[in-house]
Every structure is written in structure tokens, then in C-alpha cells.
Amino acid sequence: MFTDTFREVVGKEGVVSIVTCAENEAHVANTWNSYLGLPDSERLLIPSWKMRKTEQNTLKNNKVLLTLGSKEVPGLIGPGTGFLLEGTARFFKSGEEFDAMKAKFPFLTRVLEVTVTSLKQTI
User: Fold this and answer.
1) Strand pairing report for 63-70 and 81-92
2) Helices (runs of H) and strands (runs of E) counted in the chain
3) Alpha carbon of 53 to those of 12, 45, 56: distances in Å?
4) pLDDT, tens digit, for every residue of 69-111?
């Protein structure tokens, strides 16, 4: 599912927005492209320290939207490109993938896993 262009964007710095919704209220949390782990072609692993509201929302509704981009990667209509991802989310705090993320990002207390169901290049 992850395209070469998507992987190139993840390799450049930029902001990632994570949108959750529960009880008719949207919530947005942000992180950085460089914090994203791509363990396979359908999942993202994101270190989490705070993100308490994001976690609470995913317990009620695990559907999430993410946007990310980079002005350094050529897009569909010129310089810069971005992506919209849809998927399902869960948080975890143990296991082999947790330990690997903790070694890379010592500040994390949990890992947000997003299983991507849709990936669209937006610009």
C-alpha cells in the first residue's frame, strides 16, 4: 500500500496530524514525519508520550485520519506533496515492536499503531 512517494515523504521532515473522533467531537494530535515507523506496507508505528485524548477516543472509535506531507518532495502539481490516510488505531505498551520503538524514542510510554486502509496523495 505504501508508495515510493509516500516513503520519500516520510523520510523528509514535516508535520503529521492525527485526527480521532468520539462522542461527536473531533480531536487533532500532531507528531513528526521522522517519528513514523513503517514495519510493513500497511502499518505505521508512532511513539506516544501524551496523546491521552487520542487514546481515549480510539477506545470508543478506532477509526483515524492522518495527514502528512513535505515541501521537499515533488507532488502532483509542482513542488511539495501530501497524503491523506485512513485507518484503524490501537495503542500498546509491551512487546517486541514496543521495545524497538522505545530504544529509538526513549520518551515514549506507548506506541500508536495505525493499520492503514486507504492512502491518497492529495497534492
Assistant:
1) antiparallel
2) 3, 6
3) 27, 18, 5
4) 999 999 999 899 999 999 999 999 999 999 999 999 999 999 9
Q: Which residue in 6, 110, 101, 117 sits closest to 59, CA to CA?
A: 110
Choose among 27, 97, 85: nearest CA to 55.
27
Residue by residue, DSSP assigns 9-44 as HHTS--EEEEEEEETTEEEEEEEEGGG-B-SSSSEE
Q: Which residues contact 102 (CB under 8 A, 6 or more apart)?
A: 108
| All structural domains of the chain | 4-121 (2.30.110.10)
SS3 118: strand
Q: What is the DSSP letter of 76?
A: S
